[in-house]
Amino acid sequence: MKHGLMLFTDSFGSDAPSTDVLGWALTYAAEAERAGWDEVWTTEHHFTSAVHTPSAIAMAAFLLGRTGLGVGTAVAVLPNHHPVALAEQTALLHHVGDGRFTLGVGRGQPRGDLEVFGDGLAGYRDISGRLALLESALRAGEFEDVRLVPDVPERPPLALSAASVPTARLAGQHGIPLILGPFVSLADKRAMLDAHAETAAGHGHRIDPADHIDSTYFAIADTTDAARELLIDGLRAQLLRGAPGTRSLVEQPELTAEGADAMARKLAANVVAGDPDECARQLREREELLGTGRIILMPEGAGSVEAVLTTVRRAGAEVFPGACRPA
């Protein structure tokens, strides 16, 4: 199992300038490499002070040069990008990163950036055409009669973020592995993987289950109760903050403190949190159930720079060795 660190560049609700927030993320990445993590993953959000990375691809390029870790995007928002442009950039990062780059794409969230860069709600709801074009361009190395430069001998690593069975089936149709969304229960993730396998086989694709990628929030503390409360507190605050500066494209009721608490506690049922031994046990359990070969862990949900660094540093020495299944 490869362990990847998500870099949300979360401001934790503060008014810290971008220089500080991005500096925190680079510190997390440096500590992850020292602590024995395998990968770092970047994300894409626009027009909000909650997180400070509008380009997953640009941040990934920087981290490929800054670290020796594998680097992925979770995700580049597919409706915001021309698929052939994404294919070109992926080919470039595949070469300059010596094969360490994974392009993860997804539909994103129904927010105003989709109107600025894409087709609004229509593009959010139906990503099938863009996904097919991206996969075809990466696999064939061309678009219509235009060759992609730089060329790649085979399709670089590509994955689709999914939180539902229909999206899992879409990925299976194109022979693309999944990034299993962090807000989905383990039972639902297993159902998504089964639907993906059935659809992939029906379209003639053979995909190693270890090519799929799990994702979850993550916290370590001296006791399991303390770790879970740390994540519940952080997720509750995150939900109440929302994404200031952006607007939703779908009508949503205002979230109350009680509603945020209930949602945080529901989310906490699907995370990896505990003392080091408990975290290792939960990672082994997920690997046994899902069979994924990689997992993206998200410690920024714990709500502070200090909590993130504690989890990043302790994970390599105290959790990952115990999470390895016996050969």
Automatic annotation (TrEMBL):
<dbReference type="InterPro" id="IPR036661">
    <property type="entry name" value="Luciferase-like_sf"/>
</dbReference>
<keyword id="KW-0503">Monooxygenase</keyword>
<dbReference type="InterPro" id="IPR011251">
    <property type="entry name" value="Luciferase-like_dom"/>
</dbReference>
<feature type="domain" description="Luciferase-like">
    <location>
        <begin position="1"/>
        <end position="291"/>
    </location>
</feature>
<dbReference type="Pfam" id="PF00296">
    <property type="entry name" value="Bac_luciferase"/>
</dbReference>
<keyword id="KW-0560">Oxidoreductase</keyword>
<protein>
    <submittedName>
        <fullName>LLM class flavin-dependent oxidoreductase</fullName>
    </submittedName>
</protein>
<dbReference type="InterPro" id="IPR050766">
    <property type="entry name" value="Bact_Lucif_Oxidored"/>
</dbReference>
